[in-house]
Amino acid sequence: MASKSTLPLFLPLLPLFLQILIPNSHSAPLSFDFYAASCPAAELIVANTVRSASAQDPSIPGKLLRLLFHDCFVDGCDGSVLLKGNSTERTDPANQSLGGFEVIDSAKSVLEIFCPATVSCADILALAARDAVAVAGGPATQIPTGRRDSKSSSAQSVRPNIVDTSFTMAQMGRIFSSKGLSLLDLVVLSGAHTIGSAHCGAFSDRFESDSKGKLKLVDSASLDPNYASDLIKKCPAGGDTNPKVTVANDPQTANLFDNQYYRNLVARRGLFQSDSVLVDDERTRRIVEEMAGDQERFFEAWSESFVKLAGIGVKTGEGEGEIRASCSAVNGVV
After folding, report:
1. How far is it, in rounded angstroms, from Cα 251 to Cα 254?
2. Does residue 306 contact residue 14 with C-beta atoms inside 8 Å?
3. Which of 27, 42, 295, 305 could join 259 via S-S bond, C-beta 3.0 to 4.6 A?
């Protein structure tokens, strides 16, 4: 396999545009040196935790990145997806397959030793997802911190805000727009599918059973036939109910954060329906082709869009949230 550059791409102009990228007019903005005095080792501790966990389990980066998406799209980047309990976000079926919680808990445990009651779980999750990308070979992105943790979490908030893998372009566009994200952000952040894996049920809508019980493509124009055949072998009829069977989002470079995802889309090898529609729409197809042809451009765009993602609906004032002692429970609740 050809080696790919993992040199960090820092964005020195980000601070100048922070107020645009992270609208937060009702409270103090996030900052790039938030823990400089209170916990200077905070980012290093999170990075080391992610690096160690990923070395033991290559699936960790994809899990952490997905965990951040599911947190930020539902009531903002406030760590609400981390809370346990009846009727919390974690209980919704869309979140049943989320992973990486143990990495966040591990980082939090260390931080509570060195900097008690200082670093929020929301910040730990944002930093962990950022570091997960770098560990997997993607760009090292500077992100501001200062998020506070939500005091509540509701399963009812999940479905209206999460993008389903069967969504159309219009459905995805509406949700991204409601979060302050553009079509460019939609295409770039979909690049997260360059790592990670999915259960068969996440793309079972693309197939149907014939009279003999064998699977066949619903839309033969949406997938390369050889790729579709490979998916059927890995997920035969009835396989979508087996939680132990997973398929890599990107079969070429499954654990490497690169622009192969976009090359797959151009070759009609997008795993999800929500991937394939990106090349069916004129507005997004040109962006897909641009990212497929220039990995450095993808990395640059990723860093910009990731900062926007990690700034959705953040809570920063004392009245807006808290610093949890445990990421799985609000303060005062065992």
Report:
1. 5
2. no
3. 295
Q: How many domains does the chain have?
A: 1
Question: Which of 186, 149, 179, 147 lies closest to 161 in space, CA to CA?
Answer: 179
CA pair distance 157, 178, nearest whole angstrom: 14
Asked whether residue 118 is marked as a ligand-binding residue, the answer is no
Instruction: Give the tens place of pLDDT for each residue, 50-93.
Output: 999 999 999 999 999 999 999 999 999 999 999 999 999 999 99
207 bridge partner residues: 217
276 belongs to a structural domain: yes
Q: Which of 34, 43, 54, 70 is catalytic?
A: 70
Structure tokens at 23: 């609208």
pTM recorded for the entire structure: 0.89
- CB count within 10 Å of CB 108 equals 25
288 labeled part of a ligand binding site: no
For residue 253, the domain's CATH number is 1.10.420.10
The reply to whether 275 sits in an annotated binding site is no
Containing structural domain, residue 238: 191-300
Q: Two tokens at 133?
A: 């990308």
> CB of 262 within 8 A of CB of 292?
yes
Question: Encoding tokens for residue 5?
Answer: 């550059």
250 is in an annotated binding site: yes
Kindly state the helix (H) or strand (E) to which residue 115 belongs, with its residue range.
none
Residue 56 has which token pair? Answer: 């033991």
- Examine the residue annotation and report whether 70 is marked as an active-site residue of this protein: yes
